[in-house]
Amino acid sequence: MYENNTLYVSDLDGTLLNDSSILSPVTERTLNELIADGALFTIATARTPATAVDLMRNVNTNIPFIVMAGCALWDNGRRDYISARTICPNHMARILGIFERQGSHPFVYHRRGNKIVVEHVSEMTDAELDFIRPRILSPYKCLETVEGSELNIDTSDVMLIFGMGNFDHLRAIADDIDREGIPCSYNCYHDIFDKGLGFIDIYMEGTTKALAIEQVKAATGAERVVVFGDNLNDIPMMRAADWSVAVENAYSEVKLAASEVIGLNTDDAVVKWIKEDRFRLKSPQIHSSKIQSPSKL
């Protein structure tokens, strides 16, 4: 029943990508074989198209990419956004006011056509420079710096406010957002390697990968959704999916939320699971429409 009506959605970093943050040759080849056989596959990532497009350049999927943690859908054929959720200018002004009171300056991501213009004050820390420099080499993202501390808040095209620095400092900003009751969706989290370093992503209220997946499901006519993830921001889509799969290297909370735990991201575990699942769905001996793990059959 579900052979070509299952939508497979995978996170990138720590899930579909290996530890070098690229798709392995095995994963690329297997994905293309699956897609050629009729599989519906796409990604759901916190990355912008500036890096997601290049990472997926050898994969022949025509399903919209879910980018920026569900903030936008990207048509990789047309190289343009299908839709994008933007932060209310009033809410943005209040959030930027909190950053200013805390002595911090975030990156502000504006949508301009099919490009993201990242705005930041001209003075940046070494960590901020190291972060942004490799990310503005794409035709889909550029940097604009502003002298002084005044960012452009009179705009309705802001998709993301992104801050980085000391985790406790950023956590204080998140607490102030909660205290003031500013409508938005945010994720405040530690760096994987340096627990003192933190990041905060702030989007329009209600932004989740799960909501974006529902849009893609409707567009493709899929009847069943299977998702793959490793990080905390993958939990909402796991709860909304028909079947959810965590890789072995996922956070413990993600494993608890998942229907099943498979191998490591470094072992091409996602594409192996999809291949087994499609084999099972083609088997005439299986008539149940219940979602089950291929490894348990």
TrEMBL record:
<dbReference type="InterPro" id="IPR006379">
    <property type="entry name" value="HAD-SF_hydro_IIB"/>
</dbReference>
<dbReference type="GO" id="GO:0005829">
    <property type="term" value="C:cytosol"/>
</dbReference>
<dbReference type="GO" id="GO:0016791">
    <property type="term" value="F:phosphatase activity"/>
</dbReference>
<protein>
    <submittedName>
        <fullName>Uncharacterized protein</fullName>
    </submittedName>
</protein>
<dbReference type="GO" id="GO:0000287">
    <property type="term" value="F:magnesium ion binding"/>
</dbReference>
<dbReference type="Pfam" id="PF08282">
    <property type="entry name" value="Hydrolase_3"/>
</dbReference>
<dbReference type="InterPro" id="IPR036412">
    <property type="entry name" value="HAD-like_sf"/>
</dbReference>
<dbReference type="InterPro" id="IPR023214">
    <property type="entry name" value="HAD_sf"/>
</dbReference>
